[in-house]
Amino acid sequence: MDFNDTPQEATFRAEVQNWLTANVPTEAELTGLDYIGRAKLWQKKKHDAGWACIRWPKAHGGRDASAIEQVIFNQEEAKFDTPAGIFAIGQGMCAPTMMTWATEEQNRRFMPPMASGEEVWCQLFSEPAGGSDLAALRTKGVKDGDDWIVNGQKIWTSGAHYSDFGVLVLRTDPEAPKHQGLTYFFLDMKSPGIEIKPIRQISGGANFNEVYFTDVRIPDAQRLGNVGQGWQVALTTLMNERASIGGGGGGVNFDSVFELAQSVDLGERPAIEDPSVRRKLADWYVQEAGLKFTGYRSMTALSKGEIPGPENSIGKLVGAPKQQDMASFALDLLEQAGVIWDEKLSERAGLFQATYMASPGLRIAGGTDEIMANIIAERVLGMPQDIRVDKGIPFSEVPTASS
Amino acid sequence: MNFEFSDEQNMLREQAQSFLKAECPPQAVRTVLDGDAAFDQSLWQKVVDMGWTATVIPEQYDGLGLTYLELSVIAEELGRCLAPLPFSSSVYLATEAILAAGSDAQKAAWLPKLAAGAVMGCLADSEANGHLTAAKLSTRYADGTITGVKLPVADGDVADFAVVVASSAAGPVLALVDLNQPGCQRQVVSTLDPSRSHAAITFDGASAELLGEAGSGWIQLQQLYNRAAVLFAWEQVGGADTALNMAKEYALGRFAFGRPIATYQAIKHKLAAAYVKNTLARGNCYFGAWALSTNASELPVAAASARVAAIQAYYYAAKENIQTHGGMGFTWEFDCQFPYRRSKLLSVNIGSEAIWQEKLISAIEAQRAA
């Protein structure tokens, strides 16, 4: 057991480090750009030098790199403060789905500009009546000649407002049982009939949107998989969603709360000297270390060219509630000053307040805690699915709140 | 990155699993639990024959000279089958104490016998309710003799010698005491896990020899705990997996309201939570095994992390295993009691959860101050 790279990996890591050191954009290069402009500039720079989406085939704008090389690149890039955030859904979820289900011609058209960041993609799955129960979606697609006509509403669509393309699932046969009446498409987000409304979040941001469709036309050529096969195609996207959303990364972590406990008093002494504070910190440290070393085990499998085991499926389920609890605890340690959320006045420019307000979303996005626990029970432990009252009957007859 | 056991170590695991499946089924635990024997003697002899007691003992003392990674594999598998053996006392504690602090003569006298299973050792630390501190030690070492009472001593009724923690004029000491002498009175005490036996030992001027320097006993003891914590944690993780599997198998086969209880989210979420805790504990155990096998300066942090995570995981899996079984889990007839008993025994040996949480934060403070 060791933590070392193989000689080949070490060479690769050095190459990555050298390139990043020379090319990570300076503040001067980024001045005047908003977060979208900054992210696009950095992505283009990576792509031009062959460092974008390195796991993808060269013909699709990638580098034909291995899974462990991708991990190494991510680790090294994370050491720099690089503009990020707007490509994760397209590159992490839409791309694997396209590469599995689209034609080679389509992939040669769409993947390179996605890799270079020139075209941004979003994912239109959830609906007001279909969240955790995604397959209950009801946005309708009706065939009309060589097109499909779309009517309905999607919700929680991250980045719809700056996206050029999107993937979506439609109900194309309401008389078929729930999972069998769905069909999967990709579409141009600038198509006539699409209206995008931002949703204001409790955290203050507005990254999510409602997307309304009124007689939007999608060419049949942009269908992925067969008519009625949409659920199977969607699973490709979802599997990658859960792989790419971490929840254990940024935000509040052991270090930030430990340092806070050293700097504030609890009663007559520094909080870090209080046994109840120490016990809580110990538990969080153990969780954080457990996730880290579980990740190392997965990396080891990748390094050997093997597929990692199911261990990493715990990441979001542990990471998201942990962030919420740690942020809440940090605010308690700050006592009355904990309510102040001000970049200048707050400890760490408001990190604890921001995490407290953002963490409820982390526990929901990409599969709620409850859905993640179901996934572990069903896919890892092999327990059966819950009994479903909507199974085997036409979707139009499935009970709803209004029926 | 090579954060995994080697192919040879995985072969050892497969071999250990098939051996223990045949030699240590739940019935073997039950026999010791229900009977008068202190441990499973025939299993002990087989474990000795497999060389497991000799794992990390150097070849010059008739050991196998393997690493703590191999011993970690064995610990996890012994934990998985809840082996009714004095293995932790003799191997993780007594053998380790001699390896760490024994003189050449002491090593030559004891290690070959420990390797061959000719003797068993134990650690005599606890004296009363609550955590042992150096200031509270009432057992006294003076002029080559030990006087005092140790209660309880895990496997103290069957061990041939004890590593005794005692005070002395020079400060705390560790002393080697042959338990088969007139100055040692041993009495079996009843415990909540009768598949692992415990004793009260009264030392009345028993002859003893110092292990390591006089006055360094407390530091030695903490180092010994740190090393043993990793191996205890592996046993705990193995046992936690067993408890989770028992619960899962039962939930799959038990029907209520016309369906397997494994289809209910209340049950699934409980077992998913156990899987999460076991996985986190295992991740920490890997780091502990690495730190132990490389003598890394991270050992205090790694050992405490593994120990805290493993205590929490085993307790959760063991109690929720009974809960998943419903009333049957509460019967003597069912095996759910084994992990429930063992999880508590292993968590109060060598210091309990709160102690290790405190050690973890202290170790992190020390690491960051350095």
Structure in a nutshell:
The complex is a heterodimer of chains A (403) and B (370). Chain A has 403 residues and is α+β, with helices and mostly antiparallel strands.
> Could you spell the SSE succession of chain B in H and E letters?
HHHHHHEEEEEEEHEEHHHH
The overall strand count of chain A is 10
The domain tally of chain A reads 3
Contiguous runs where pLDDT drops below 50 for at least 5 residues of chain B: none
The CATH homologous superfamily of the largest domain in chain A: Butyryl-CoA Dehydrogenase, subunit A, domain 2
Domain count of chain B: the total is 3
Q: Helical proportion of chain B?
A: 40-55%
Largest interface: A-B, 49 and 48 residues
Distance between the termini of chain B: 26 Å
- The CATH architecture of the largest domain in chain B would be Up-down Bundle
The CATH homology group name of the largest domain in chain B: Butyryl-CoA Dehydrogenase, subunit A, domain 3
Mean pLDDT of chain A: 93
**Uncertain residue ranges of chain A:** 244-248
Shape of chain B: globular
Number of helices of chain A: 12
List descriptors.
heterodimer, A: 403 residues, alpha+beta, Butyryl-Coa Dehydrogenase, subunit A, domain 1, Butyryl-CoA Dehydrogenase, subunit A, domain 2, Butyryl-CoA Dehydrogenase, subunit A, domain 3, 3 domains, four-stranded mixed beta sheet, four-stranded antiparallel beta sheet, 12 helices, 10 strands, 13% strand, B: 370 residues, seven-stranded mixed beta sheet, two-stranded antiparallel sheet, 11 helices, 9 strands
